[in-house]
Amino acid sequence: MDASDLPRPGPDHETLPGRVGAVIIGRNEGARLLACLDSFPAWVRPLVYVDSGSTDGSVAAALAAGAEVVALDMTQPFTAARARNAGFARLREMGAPDFVQFIDGDCRIQPGWIEAAEAFLTARPEVAVVCGRRREIRPEASIWNRLCDAEWDTPVGEARACGGDALMRVAAVAGVGGYDPALIAGEEPELCVRLRQSGWRIWRIGREMTLHDAAMTRIGQWWKRTRRGGHAFAEGAAMHGAPPERHWVAETRRALLWGAVLPLAVLVGLALTPWAALVLLIYPLQILRLSRRMGWERATFLVLGKFPEAQGVLEYHLNRLRRRRAGLIEYK
Q1: pLDDT computed for residue 214 by the predictor
Q2: Residues of the chain with pLDDT under 70
Q3: Structural domains in the chain?
Protein backbone atom coordinates (compact mmCIF):
# COMPACT_ATOMS: atom_id res chain seq x y z
CA MET A 1 0.00 0.00 0.00
CA ASP A 2 1.37 3.44 -0.91
CA ALA A 3 0.26 6.90 0.11
CA SER A 4 -2.31 7.12 -2.70
CA ASP A 5 -4.12 4.07 -1.31
CA LEU A 6 -4.59 5.50 2.17
CA PRO A 7 -8.08 6.47 3.28
CA ARG A 8 -8.66 10.21 3.31
CA PRO A 9 -11.45 12.16 4.94
CA GLY A 10 -13.96 13.34 2.37
CA PRO A 11 -17.66 13.85 1.72
CA ASP A 12 -18.45 10.24 2.62
CA HIS A 13 -16.51 10.35 5.89
CA GLU A 14 -18.09 12.15 8.83
CA THR A 15 -15.86 12.98 11.78
CA LEU A 16 -18.17 12.83 14.77
CA PRO A 17 -17.68 14.78 18.01
CA GLY A 18 -16.62 12.49 20.82
CA ARG A 19 -14.91 9.89 18.64
CA VAL A 20 -11.43 11.29 19.31
CA GLY A 21 -9.94 12.60 22.55
CA ALA A 22 -6.39 13.58 23.42
CA VAL A 23 -3.82 13.11 26.17
CA ILE A 24 -1.13 15.78 26.40
CA ILE A 25 1.77 15.51 28.85
CA GLY A 26 4.15 18.24 29.87
CA ARG A 27 6.02 20.29 32.42
CA ASN A 28 6.84 23.98 32.17
CA GLU A 29 6.13 24.10 28.44
CA GLY A 30 4.67 27.62 28.61
CA ALA A 31 3.67 29.00 25.22
CA ARG A 32 4.39 25.63 23.59
CA LEU A 33 1.61 24.02 25.65
CA LEU A 34 -0.89 26.69 24.64
CA ALA A 35 0.07 26.21 20.99
CA CYS A 36 -0.37 22.46 21.42
CA LEU A 37 -3.87 22.80 22.90
CA ASP A 38 -4.87 25.38 20.29
CA SER A 39 -3.80 23.09 17.44
CA PHE A 40 -6.58 20.55 18.09
CA PRO A 41 -9.82 20.83 16.10
CA ALA A 42 -12.81 21.84 18.21
CA TRP A 43 -14.45 18.42 17.75
CA VAL A 44 -11.53 16.60 19.44
CA ARG A 45 -12.66 16.39 23.04
CA PRO A 46 -11.90 15.90 25.81
CA LEU A 47 -8.38 17.27 25.92
CA VAL A 48 -6.68 15.86 29.01
CA TYR A 49 -3.49 17.61 30.06
CA VAL A 50 -1.26 15.77 32.53
CA ASP A 51 1.06 18.10 34.41
CA SER A 52 4.18 16.89 36.16
CA GLY A 53 4.97 19.64 38.63
CA SER A 54 5.00 22.77 36.45
CA THR A 55 5.87 26.06 38.11
CA ASP A 56 5.20 28.34 35.11
CA GLY A 57 1.42 28.54 35.28
CA SER A 58 0.84 25.68 32.84
CA VAL A 59 -2.01 24.22 34.89
CA ALA A 60 -3.96 27.48 34.98
CA ALA A 61 -3.30 28.09 31.29
CA ALA A 62 -4.51 24.60 30.35
CA LEU A 63 -7.67 25.02 32.42
CA ALA A 64 -8.34 28.39 30.78
CA ALA A 65 -7.94 26.73 27.39
CA GLY A 66 -10.67 24.22 28.25
CA ALA A 67 -8.53 21.19 29.02
CA GLU A 68 -9.16 18.71 31.79
CA VAL A 69 -6.07 18.75 34.02
CA VAL A 70 -4.53 15.84 35.88
CA ALA A 71 -1.76 16.84 38.30
CA LEU A 72 0.59 13.94 38.94
CA ASP A 73 1.63 13.09 42.48
CA MET A 74 5.29 14.04 42.25
CA THR A 75 6.18 12.20 45.45
CA GLN A 76 6.06 9.09 43.24
CA PRO A 77 8.80 8.41 40.65
CA PHE A 78 7.91 10.26 37.45
CA THR A 79 7.96 8.75 33.96
CA ALA A 80 6.29 9.89 30.75
CA ALA A 81 4.62 6.46 30.62
CA ARG A 82 3.06 7.04 34.04
CA ALA A 83 1.81 10.46 32.91
CA ARG A 84 0.26 9.02 29.75
CA ASN A 85 -1.45 6.29 31.75
CA ALA A 86 -2.90 8.86 34.16
CA GLY A 87 -4.27 10.93 31.28
CA PHE A 88 -5.63 7.84 29.54
CA ALA A 89 -7.39 6.72 32.73
CA ARG A 90 -9.02 10.14 33.13
CA LEU A 91 -10.08 10.14 29.49
CA ARG A 92 -11.83 6.80 29.98
CA GLU A 93 -13.51 8.00 33.18
CA MET A 94 -15.01 10.89 31.23
CA GLY A 95 -16.58 8.54 28.68
CA ALA A 96 -13.91 6.94 26.54
CA PRO A 97 -13.82 7.97 22.86
CA ASP A 98 -12.96 5.42 20.19
CA PHE A 99 -9.51 6.91 19.57
CA VAL A 100 -6.95 8.86 21.58
CA GLN A 101 -4.26 11.16 20.27
CA PHE A 102 -1.19 11.01 22.50
CA ILE A 103 1.10 14.01 22.16
CA ASP A 104 3.85 15.75 24.09
CA GLY A 105 3.22 19.31 25.26
CA ASP A 106 6.11 20.66 23.17
CA CYS A 107 4.39 19.56 19.96
CA ARG A 108 1.41 20.75 17.98
CA ILE A 109 -0.96 18.96 15.63
CA GLN A 110 -0.66 19.64 11.92
CA PRO A 111 -3.88 20.62 10.11
CA GLY A 112 -5.74 17.61 8.72
CA TRP A 113 -3.79 15.02 10.70
CA ILE A 114 -6.54 13.96 13.10
CA GLU A 115 -9.07 13.64 10.26
CA ALA A 116 -6.72 11.51 8.14
CA ALA A 117 -5.60 9.31 11.04
CA GLU A 118 -9.16 8.78 12.31
CA ALA A 119 -10.28 7.83 8.80
CA PHE A 120 -7.43 5.34 8.54
CA LEU A 121 -8.24 3.61 11.83
CA THR A 122 -11.93 3.53 10.95
CA ALA A 123 -11.16 1.84 7.63
CA ARG A 124 -8.61 -0.57 9.10
CA PRO A 125 -10.08 -2.25 12.22
CA GLU A 126 -7.01 -4.47 12.64
CA VAL A 127 -4.76 -1.42 13.18
CA ALA A 128 -4.27 -0.17 16.75
CA VAL A 129 -1.85 2.70 16.15
CA VAL A 130 -1.32 5.12 13.31
CA CYS A 131 1.40 7.76 13.19
CA GLY A 132 2.66 10.17 10.56
CA ARG A 133 5.57 12.54 9.98
CA ARG A 134 6.76 14.41 13.03
CA ARG A 135 8.91 17.40 12.12
CA GLU A 136 11.21 19.63 14.09
CA ILE A 137 9.81 23.17 14.14
CA ARG A 138 13.23 24.85 13.73
CA PRO A 139 15.69 22.41 12.16
CA GLU A 140 17.84 25.30 11.00
CA ALA A 141 18.44 26.46 14.59
CA SER A 142 21.06 23.83 15.39
CA ILE A 143 22.66 20.65 14.13
CA TRP A 144 20.99 18.81 17.03
CA ASN A 145 17.53 19.90 15.87
CA ARG A 146 18.35 18.79 12.32
CA LEU A 147 19.40 15.38 13.59
CA CYS A 148 16.05 15.03 15.38
CA ASP A 149 14.17 15.96 12.22
CA ALA A 150 16.07 13.37 10.16
CA GLU A 151 15.60 10.69 12.83
CA TRP A 152 11.81 11.02 12.58
CA ASP A 153 11.72 10.51 8.81
CA THR A 154 10.92 6.79 8.94
CA PRO A 155 9.37 4.70 6.12
CA VAL A 156 5.67 4.86 5.36
CA GLY A 157 3.76 1.59 5.73
CA GLU A 158 3.36 -1.09 8.35
CA ALA A 159 5.74 -0.43 11.23
CA ARG A 160 6.96 -2.13 14.37
CA ALA A 161 6.58 0.90 16.62
CA CYS A 162 5.59 4.54 16.93
CA GLY A 163 6.92 7.49 18.89
CA GLY A 164 5.30 9.69 21.51
CA ASP A 165 2.83 11.24 19.05
CA ALA A 166 0.26 8.83 17.60
CA LEU A 167 -3.46 8.22 17.26
CA MET A 168 -4.39 4.96 19.02
CA ARG A 169 -7.46 2.80 19.36
CA VAL A 170 -8.66 3.15 22.96
CA ALA A 171 -9.86 -0.46 23.23
CA ALA A 172 -6.50 -1.78 22.03
CA VAL A 173 -4.43 0.29 24.49
CA ALA A 174 -6.75 -0.61 27.36
CA GLY A 175 -6.65 -4.27 26.36
CA VAL A 176 -2.89 -4.54 26.88
CA GLY A 177 -2.84 -2.47 30.07
CA GLY A 178 -1.49 0.80 28.68
CA TYR A 179 2.11 1.92 28.97
CA ASP A 180 4.61 0.34 31.34
CA PRO A 181 4.93 3.07 34.00
CA ALA A 182 8.34 1.85 35.18
CA LEU A 183 10.10 2.66 31.89
CA ILE A 184 12.07 5.91 31.82
CA ALA A 185 12.41 5.75 28.01
CA GLY A 186 11.27 3.67 25.07
CA GLU A 187 7.76 3.22 26.46
CA GLU A 188 6.01 3.66 23.10
CA PRO A 189 7.90 0.91 21.22
CA GLU A 190 7.45 -1.39 24.23
CA LEU A 191 3.68 -0.78 24.15
CA CYS A 192 3.72 -1.53 20.43
CA VAL A 193 5.47 -4.86 21.09
CA ARG A 194 2.60 -5.94 23.34
CA LEU A 195 0.00 -4.65 20.89
CA ARG A 196 1.55 -6.65 18.04
CA GLN A 197 1.80 -9.72 20.24
CA SER A 198 -1.93 -9.35 20.85
CA GLY A 199 -2.62 -9.38 17.11
CA TRP A 200 -2.82 -5.64 16.43
CA ARG A 201 -0.93 -3.81 13.68
CA ILE A 202 0.99 -0.52 13.66
CA TRP A 203 1.09 1.83 10.66
CA ARG A 204 2.78 5.01 9.59
CA ILE A 205 0.93 6.95 6.90
CA GLY A 206 2.28 9.60 4.57
CA ARG A 207 0.74 12.61 6.30
CA GLU A 208 2.20 15.50 8.25
CA MET A 209 1.39 14.76 11.91
CA THR A 210 3.04 17.11 14.41
CA LEU A 211 5.58 19.88 14.80
CA HIS A 212 8.03 19.42 17.67
CA ASP A 213 10.23 21.91 19.47
CA ALA A 214 13.36 20.04 20.57
CA ALA A 215 15.08 23.29 21.57
CA MET A 216 18.49 21.61 21.51
CA THR A 217 21.33 24.09 21.27
CA ARG A 218 24.17 22.29 23.07
CA ILE A 219 26.07 19.08 22.46
CA GLY A 220 25.39 18.07 26.07
CA GLN A 221 21.67 17.92 25.27
CA TRP A 222 22.34 15.66 22.29
CA TRP A 223 24.57 13.43 24.43
CA LYS A 224 21.90 13.02 27.13
CA ARG A 225 19.16 12.31 24.59
CA THR A 226 21.32 9.71 22.84
CA ARG A 227 22.38 8.18 26.16
CA ARG A 228 18.70 7.84 27.04
CA GLY A 229 18.22 6.00 23.76
CA GLY A 230 20.91 3.51 24.75
CA HIS A 231 19.19 2.93 28.08
CA ALA A 232 15.91 2.30 26.22
CA PHE A 233 17.64 -0.19 23.89
CA ALA A 234 19.07 -2.17 26.81
CA GLU A 235 15.85 -2.24 28.83
CA GLY A 236 13.76 -3.10 25.79
CA ALA A 237 16.10 -5.96 24.90
CA ALA A 238 15.97 -7.23 28.48
CA MET A 239 12.16 -7.26 28.39
CA HIS A 240 11.43 -8.52 24.87
CA GLY A 241 14.77 -9.63 23.45
CA ALA A 242 13.93 -13.33 23.21
CA PRO A 243 12.99 -14.80 19.80
CA PRO A 244 10.98 -14.19 17.77
CA GLU A 245 10.62 -10.53 18.84
CA ARG A 246 14.33 -9.70 19.40
CA HIS A 247 13.24 -6.23 20.43
CA TRP A 248 16.21 -3.83 20.23
CA VAL A 249 18.75 -6.63 20.56
CA ALA A 250 20.66 -5.56 17.44
CA GLU A 251 20.63 -1.90 18.50
CA THR A 252 21.99 -2.80 21.94
CA ARG A 253 24.76 -4.95 20.47
CA ARG A 254 25.79 -2.24 17.99
CA ALA A 255 25.97 0.34 20.77
CA LEU A 256 28.19 -1.90 22.88
CA LEU A 257 30.42 -2.95 19.98
CA TRP A 258 31.10 0.54 18.62
CA GLY A 259 30.86 2.51 21.85
CA ALA A 260 32.56 0.20 24.36
CA VAL A 261 34.13 -3.03 23.01
CA LEU A 262 36.23 -1.51 20.20
CA PRO A 263 37.58 1.40 22.32
CA LEU A 264 38.45 -1.02 25.12
CA ALA A 265 40.17 -3.34 22.65
CA VAL A 266 42.27 -0.44 21.39
CA LEU A 267 43.30 0.54 24.93
CA VAL A 268 44.32 -3.04 25.71
CA GLY A 269 46.11 -3.34 22.39
CA LEU A 270 48.10 -0.15 22.96
CA ALA A 271 49.68 -1.79 26.00
CA LEU A 272 51.19 -4.28 23.56
CA THR A 273 51.85 -2.26 20.40
CA PRO A 274 51.24 1.30 19.14
CA TRP A 275 49.90 -0.24 15.91
CA ALA A 276 46.70 -1.03 17.80
CA ALA A 277 45.71 2.61 17.28
CA LEU A 278 45.08 1.77 13.61
CA VAL A 279 41.89 0.01 14.71
CA LEU A 280 40.43 3.50 15.29
CA LEU A 281 40.39 4.00 11.52
CA ILE A 282 37.29 1.83 11.47
CA TYR A 283 35.28 4.82 12.75
CA PRO A 284 35.97 7.24 9.85
CA LEU A 285 35.58 4.31 7.44
CA GLN A 286 32.15 3.60 8.93
CA ILE A 287 31.23 7.28 8.59
CA LEU A 288 32.34 7.19 4.95
CA ARG A 289 30.25 4.10 4.28
CA LEU A 290 27.10 5.53 5.89
CA SER A 291 27.51 8.99 4.37
CA ARG A 292 26.77 7.63 0.91
CA ARG A 293 23.24 6.86 2.08
CA MET A 294 22.48 9.58 4.63
CA GLY A 295 25.00 12.39 4.16
CA TRP A 296 28.08 13.39 6.17
CA GLU A 297 26.37 15.16 9.05
CA ARG A 298 23.96 12.43 9.98
CA ALA A 299 26.51 9.65 9.38
CA THR A 300 29.09 11.34 11.61
CA PHE A 301 26.76 11.70 14.56
CA LEU A 302 25.21 8.28 14.06
CA VAL A 303 28.68 6.80 14.59
CA LEU A 304 29.65 9.18 17.41
CA GLY A 305 26.29 8.49 19.04
CA LYS A 306 27.36 4.92 19.80
CA PHE A 307 29.44 6.27 22.70
CA PRO A 308 26.56 7.84 24.67
CA GLU A 309 24.35 4.91 23.64
CA ALA A 310 26.89 2.50 25.12
CA GLN A 311 26.96 4.59 28.27
CA GLY A 312 23.19 4.26 28.54
CA VAL A 313 23.33 0.50 27.98
CA LEU A 314 26.00 0.02 30.63
CA GLU A 315 24.17 2.26 33.11
CA TYR A 316 21.03 0.18 32.69
CA HIS A 317 22.84 -3.09 33.39
CA LEU A 318 24.79 -1.60 36.32
CA ASN A 319 21.56 -0.37 37.91
CA ARG A 320 20.01 -3.76 37.29
CA LEU A 321 22.88 -5.51 39.08
CA ARG A 322 22.59 -3.09 41.98
CA ARG A 323 18.77 -3.48 42.00
CA ARG A 324 18.48 0.28 41.73
CA ARG A 325 15.78 2.19 39.89
CA ALA A 326 17.17 4.39 37.15
CA GLY A 327 16.40 8.11 37.30
CA LEU A 328 15.10 10.16 34.41
CA ILE A 329 17.55 11.20 31.70
CA GLU A 330 16.25 14.60 30.59
CA TYR A 331 17.90 16.70 27.92
CA LYS A 332 15.89 19.91 28.42
Answers
A1: 86
A2: 1-17
A3: 3-217 (3.90.550.10), 236-322 (no CATH)
**pLDDT tens sequence across 257-295:** 999 999 999 999 999 999 999 999 999 999 999 999 999
How far is Cα 292 from Cα 269, in angstroms, rounded to an integer?
A: 31
In whole angstroms, give the CA distance from residue 92 to residue 100. 10
> In this predicted model, what pLDDT tens digit does every residue of 212-231 receive, in sequence order?
988 899 999 999 999 999 99
Which contacts (CB < 8 Å, 24+ apart) does range 257-260 have? 257/306, 258/283, 258/286, 258/303, 258/306, 258/307, 258/310, 259/230, 259/306, 259/307, 259/308, 259/309, 259/310, 259/311, 259/313, 260/310, 260/313, 260/314
Q: How many CA atoms lie within 13 A of 42 on its CB side?
A: 0
Task: Judge contact between 316 and 235, C-beta under 8 A.
Answer: yes
pTM of the entire predicted model: 0.90
Crossing angle, helix 80-93 and helix 187-197, to 10 degrees? 60
* In contact, 162 and 188? CB cutoff 8 Å: yes
Beta-bridged to residue 50, according to DSSP, are: 25, 70
